[in-house]
Amino acid sequence: LKRKMANHQLAQLLSIICLISCLMFATCGATHVYDVYRMFQIDKEGSHLGSQRAGVNYLATSPTRTGSLARYIVIIPLADFTISLMDELIIQRQAEALLVLLPRDSSMLTKDLLERWRGFEQELFTREVKVPIYFAFEDEELQNLNSRVKTMSEDTTIGSLFDSFSNSADLYQMVLTGSEPAQIKEIIVTNYQGWLAGKTSEETNPTIAIVAHYDTLAVAPGLARGADSSASGVIAILELARLFSDLYRSQGGHARYNLLFALTGGSRLNFAGTKHWLEKSDSHILEGIEFALCLDSIGNGDGLNLHVSRVPKEEPLLSLFEEFKTTAALMKLPWEISHKKINISNSDVNWEHEQFSRKKIPGGTLSHFTSVVPVWSRSHVYDDFKSVNTATLTRNIQFIAESLARHIYKTPKDAFPIFSGKLAVDQLFVENFLNFSCRNSRTVSQLGKNSPFLRELENFLGKSAQISKQEFSAETPYVFYDASVASMTAYRVKGILFDFSVSLVIGVYLLGMYAYLRGIPATMREIKGIFEPSKVKTK
C-alpha cells in the first residue's frame, strides 16, 4: 500500500513538472538571429563619442508607442530616422536602446533620403550616446517583426489588452549578450610604395607621386566599405601602375620621369600614414617630387575637381595643369581647380595633399567633390559597391593616365588617346577589385597587418612596380573600441497578462494537488492558519 501511495505521489509530481514545462514553453516562441552593426565608440582627449554601451535585453517596440520607453529597445526604419527623434526617444522617453533598420539595396534609396542620411551620419560623429545603438539590414523576418511590433505599439484599445492572453499578442525580447567593448590598444598602419624609375639617373629625374588612402570609416564601423572614399582611389593607383609599367617597358616608352605610387593608411587619423611616409622617406625622393597627385572619391559625378592649397604660377606645374585642362576638353569632362589655403596651426587635415603642402611639396587632391568635405563624413554605410559607377571610375582613371602621359612625354594635342587597345583601362579589373574591396570593413582599427585586403594590395602593386612598405604604430589622440559586429536574437514571448494567467493556473493546480494529497480538511486548516494572527503566550 505504501509503495502504491509513493508511486501515485510520484506520478502526480511528474504531472506537475510536465504542466509547468509546457506552460514555460508556451511563453516563448521561435527565435530569429541576425547580424547587427554597433555604432562607433571612440574616445578623444577626454571626450566620449558614439555609443557607450553594448548589451541588450529589452522588449522591442516602435517610436509610436506612447509613454515611457524604459526597458524597451526601439526599432526605427531608416526612412523614419532623424536626429531629433533619436534625442526624443533616448533623452526624453528614456529608451534603453535603438535598432535602425537599413534597406539592404542602396539603389532603392531616393537621392533625397541618401543625402539626409549622410547628413545624419556626419552629425552622429559629434555625439555621445549613452545607450546601445545598432544597425541591421532588413530581411523578411525583420520586416515582419517590425510590422507586428508597430501594430502592437499603436493598438492601445481595451480589446487589445484582453487579446494579450492570445497568441496574437506576442512580444519580442531582443537579446545581445557578451562582454562590453574593449579598447584597441594599438593601431598598426601599413604604407605601400611602388616605384617606376625613369630611363636616366633616378636621382636627377623629376618624380610624380600618385597617392591614395585605402582605409575608410562609417557611423557603424562594421559597415565601412568605402567604395568611393576611397577604394576608387586605390583601384586607380593599381591600374595606373599597370598601365605605366607596360608603357615604360614598351619600345620607346621609357620616359625620364620617375613614378611613385603610394597607398597609405590612417586617413581618419589626419592621414597619419601619409605623414609617417613623408617623415621616413628618403630626402632625395621627397626633394625630387614635382607634384603629388592624391586621389579620393573619384567613382562618381559628372566631372572632377583638383583641390589645391596653392595655385601654381611656375613651370613645370603650369604645363601639368594645362595638360589636365586639355585632356578634360578632349574627353568632354568638366574639370575645375578648387583653391583653399590650409591653416598650419590646425591639426585637422581634410585632404591628403595637405600633408604634402605642410612639407612644402606641391600637391593636390582629385575628387568629384566640388568643395571641402570633412574626411570623417566622406564615407557612409551606403558607400558600397552599388554606390560607385564603374564606367565613371574607368573614365576618370583614363583621364588621369592621359593627362600624366601628355605631361611626361610632351605629346602634341592631337595625340589622343594614348591608352587604348592593349593599353586601355581594364574595366573588368575595376569592377572585380571594387567588389573585393567592399566585402569587408576597412577601418584602420580593424585592418591588421595580416589583412587579406592588404595582402592583395601588396600583391597587385608588386606586379607592376618595385614595392616597399612601412609598418608603424600610429600615435593618435583617438582611442577605438572593438565589438563592431555582433548577433542579436529576437525571442517571441507572451505579454505580462499571459504571464499572470500562467502563474495563476499553476498556483491553482498546485493547490489542488496539495489538497488531494493532504486531504481537504487538513489543507483548509493550514490555509486558515496562514491568515490567523499568531497567539502570543503569556505567563
Core attributes:
539 residues; alpha/beta; eight-stranded mixed beta sheet; seven-stranded mixed barrel; 15 helices; 19 strands; 38% helix; elongated
Poorly predicted spans: 157-168
| Class inferred from helices and paired strands | alpha/beta
Strand arrangement within the widest β-sheet reads: 15-14-16-13-11-12-10-17
Q: Find the count of extended strands (DSSP E, 2+ residues).
A: 19
Q: Determine the strand fraction and express it as a percent band.
A: 15-25%
Give a topology summary.
Blueprint: H1 2-26, E1 28-38, E2 41-44, E3 47-51, E4 56-61, E5 72-77, H2 83-92, E6 97-102, H3 111-124, E7 128-129, E8 133-137, H4 140-154, H5 158-162, E9 171-176, E10 188-196, E11 207-213, H6 227-249, E12 258-264, H7 272-280, H8 283-287, E13 289-295, E14 304-308, H9 317-330, E15 335-339, H10 353-358, E16 363-367, H11 390-409, H12 427-437, H13 452-464, E17 466-473, E18 478-480, E19 485-493, H14 496-518, H15 520-531
Parallel strand pairs: 3-7, 4-5, 5-6, 6-8, 11-12, 11-13, 13-16, 14-15
Antiparallel strand pairs: 1-8, 1-19, 2-3, 2-18, 4-9, 9-19, 10-12, 10-17, 14-16
Précis, in short:
The protein has 539 residues and is an alpha/beta fold.
